[in-house]
UniProtKB/TrEMBL annotation:
Location of this chain's protein in the cell: Membrane
UniProt keyword annotation of Membrane present: yes
Chain segments carrying region Disordered: 1-20, 42-62
Name under which the protein is recorded: Transmembrane channel-like protein
Annotated gene: TMC7
Keyword set, alphabetical order: Membrane, Transmembrane, Transmembrane helix
Transmembrane portions of the chain: 163-185, 219-245, 257-279, 358-376, 396-419, 431-452, 484-502, 547-566, 587-608, 655-676
Pfam families recorded: TMC (PF07810)
PANTHER family the UniProt entry points to: TRANSMEMBRANE CHANNEL-LIKE PROTEIN 7, TRANSMEMBRANE CHANNEL-RELATED
Length: 709
């Protein structure tokens, strides 16, 4: 391929054969822009290179490099073979290389041949497994269809929703396998198993009283509806909530299963698993976003010249790919237009925008303060009057905090999305700023938990006996689980109700009514930030509530599975996509970044409840422990003395300080490595620029030569 015309190599290395197949003139090569750039750099750096090396400083031709590598491949080294891939080989050269590799196999020992065969088989197996798993991927065709019709931005939302379905399903499998299943089969004697209930030790008698109201005598039908929606009554002592698991040890023949330790460790495992999985996916999205932001023009060229997949043969697939590329190019052009507009702003315009932003942010802070105070007062009122109402009043009072939180989550983003139009941000930054509204939604959950915590941990005399308010909350963990359960159920009801009773009637009115105000309103826009905040809010509730309600991930899995189809139908038939184009690479990263914020904030209430708040003495597996975390040192005390010393040493300051120093050294090493890689990338980018200039120079010389002839 490089034998018929001139070609530039990386770093300004040029191979230009002439018609007589003789070496090119050195004087001519010295006129190349890449050579002049290298010469200026060496002169400014004061280098003392050999003059002969300066005159003949260009490396061997690509053909010579290929021949050399092929010869080296005949000797050994897979690394050499991999380096061949850096060069473009034509068909005869590839055949020659393959013959050399096949000949080398015959001279290998039996063990080396077995290793090579095993590596090839394993690689082939992984490739086939990956290809098969792509066909088994959940909602694969649906998401591809959405991508083709509405772009990669909306597709990234549905991919994010699929990720949460899988994450919640795995969390449910963990909680069910290690907590619910052992407790259930031991109570029914399956597999010759038995259990030992937690015996209360040194506990005041009034702390162990735990009665569930509304489960005796004549029960009306509407009571079951209240119990189903609020998690009280017949649901309160099921495996759905914390209070059901009052088991100390499960015996499977000769195996003893410590349920309190398993309860705590499983909680830590699902939180750690969520953290690792989110960070892993975030890093992948960050790489794409970073590469695109470093050189937008390169991304644009890649879409123009290398964006099409020539393996596509299906007309529908080609149509979807065409639409996807179209949306990506529209996004690039829109961002470039906004960058030019921002660069042309005058000083007066900048001053006006900054003053307006300060004023609007002050208004936002006032709105948030009002939302937080309303949630706090609603929670206090609900907890004080939860048992003094009729059916309708009781249901309303129980759901009052959820109603106020939902209203705050609905009203505040509406104001934010309207206000942000006047601040003149780019679409990408608008999405990031709107996604930061997740703090508002998560802060609403925080206010609810803070209000409950103040009533659970009281400071008066009547709480000293048990360490918590046992009169109002004999099993406070189950009460917190009920609040999270109600938030989860109410959030799903709101999503379903908005789609059925708001979006669908609005679609009918816009379609069949020609009234100007209705036509001016138009169809509901499918706003990606608001929908992402919606599911991040629900996932944070799931993370917090799983410790208090182990089967809550199952409800979240079913909820998000149904929400996917609700959102898909709403997008296809009752909504219209937003006019602002959204890029998938940046969207995926920021979706996961916002989800990571929700996970980190979920650690705070869980960590405090496990270590600082006294465990309930009337329910749960931690009756005989001051806190949930005390089960860990209690279990360690049962280990052999040598193992105890090792674990205590790991937990001591003598181990923590050297470990922290080692982590810092490793971090500094990777920072230095990243800096070195960045410099190499800058050099390669500069070489690509020089290569393009060399091509322009050669084309100009060829044109001049043709004119002279």
């Amino acid at each position: 391929r490089g034998n018929s015309s001139g070609r530039a190599l990386p770093g300004g290395q040029v191979f230009l054969p002439d018609a007589n197949n003789t070496s090119p003139s050195v004087t001519f090569l010295q006129e190349l822009p890449s050579y002049q750039s290298i010469l200026r750099r060496r002169t400014s750096a004061g280098g003392t290179q050999d003059r002969r090396q300066n005159n003949h400083g260009f490396a061997r031709s690509p053909a010579a490099e290929k021949r050399n590598l092929i010869k080296r491949a005949g000797v050994k080294s897979e690394a050499v073979v991999r380096s061949i891939r850096e060069y473009a080989l034509n068909i005869p050269e590839k055949r020659k290389l393959r013959d050399i590799q096949e000949a080398n196999v015959k001279h290998l020992s039996g063990w080396d041949q077995l290793k090579q065969t095993r590596n090839k088989s394993w690689k082939k197996f992984l490739d086939e497994t990956k290809e098969l798993s792509s066909y088994l991927e959940l909602w694969r065709n649906d998401i591809h269809s959405i991508e083709g019709k509405f772009g990669t931005g909306i597709k990234s939302y549905f991919s994010f929703l699929r990720f949460l379905v899988l994450l919640n399903f795995i969390i449910f499998v963990l909680m069910f396998s290690f907590i619910t299943l052992p407790s259930t089969i031991s109570q029914y004697g399956v597999f010759n198993s038995s259990y030992v209930k937690v015996p209360p030790k040194d506990i005041e008698p009034q702390c162990t009283v735990y009665t569930i109201s509304g489960t005796k005598g004549l029960i009306y039908f509407y009571t079951y509806i209240i119990d189903l929606l609020s998690g009280t009554g017949f649901l309160e002592m099921t495996s759905l909530f914390y209070g059901y698991y009052r088991i100390d040890m499960v015996h499977f023949s000769a195996i003893k299963y410590n349920l309190p330790l398993a309860y705590l460790l499983t909680t830590l495992v699902y939180l750690s698993l969520s953290l690792i999985w989110i960070v892993k996916r975030s890093v992948e999205g960050f790489k794409q976003s970073f590469v695109r932001e470093e050189d937008p023009f390169q991304s644009y060229c890649n879409k123009i010249f290398a964006g099409w997949d020539f393996c596509i043969t299906d007309p529908n697939a080609s149509r979807l790919k065409h639409s996807s590329l179209k949306y990506e190019l529209e996004t690039d052009l829109e961002e470039e237009r906004l960058r030019q507009k921002k660069a042309c702003r005058t000083t007066e315009e900048k001053l006006r925008i900054y003053c307006l932003r300060i004023f609007l942010n002050i208004f936002v802070l006032g709105l948030l303060s009002g939302c937080f105070y309303s949630i706090y007062r609603a929670t206090i009122y609900s907890q004080e009057n939860i048992s003094n109402m009729t059916f309708e009043g009781n249901l309303f009072v129980q759901y009052l905090p959820s109603i106020v939180i939902t209203l705050a989550n609905f009203i505040a983003p509406l104001f934010f999305s309207y206000i942000i139009r006047f601040e003149e941000y780019s679409p990408a930054f608008e999405i990031r700023l709107t996604l930061m509204c997740v703090f508002v939604r998560l802060a609403n959950i925080g206010v609810l938990l803070f209000s409950l915590g103040n009533r659970i941990v009281c400071a008066n005399e009547k709480c000293k006996a048990c360490g918590y308010n046992y009169e109002l909350y004999p099993c406070w963990e189950s009460r917190v689980g009920q609040e999270m359960y109600k938030l989860m159920i109410f959030d799903f009801i709101i999503i379903f109700a908005v789609a059925v009773f708001v979006d669908f009637p609005r679609k009918l009115l816009v379609t069949y009514c020609s009234c100007k105000p209705i036509q001016w309103c138009g169809l509901q826009k499918f706003q990606i930030p608001e929908n992402v905040l919606e599911i991040v809010y629900g996932q944070t509730i799931c993370w917090i509530g799983t410790f208090y309600s182990p089967l809550l991930p199952a409800i979240a899995t079913i909820k998000y599975f149904i929400v996917f189809y609700i959102k898909k139908i709403s997008l296809m038939h009752t909504c219209r996509p937003s006019k602002k184009s959204v890029r998938a690479s940046s969207s995926n990263f920021f979706f996961l970044a916002v989800l990571l914020i929700g996970l980190i904030l979920a650690f705070i209430p869980l960590g405090l409840s496990m270590t600082r708040i006294r465990s309930s003495k009337a329910c749960g597996p931690f009756v005989n422990f001051n806190s949930s975390w005390d089960v860990v040192p209690h279990t360690i005390r049962g280990f052999p003395t040598a193992l105890q010393k090792v674990l205590n040493g790991i937990a001591s300051e003598a181990f923590a300080v050297p470990f922290f120093m080692a982590i810092c050294l490793i971090m500094f090493y990777f920072i230095a490595l990243a800096g070195a890689h960045k410099r190499v990338v800058d050099q390669l980018r500069e070489q690509l620029v020089m290569e393009s200039r060399d091509k322009q120079f050669l084309i100009r010389k060829i044109t001049e030569a043709q004119r002279c002839s």
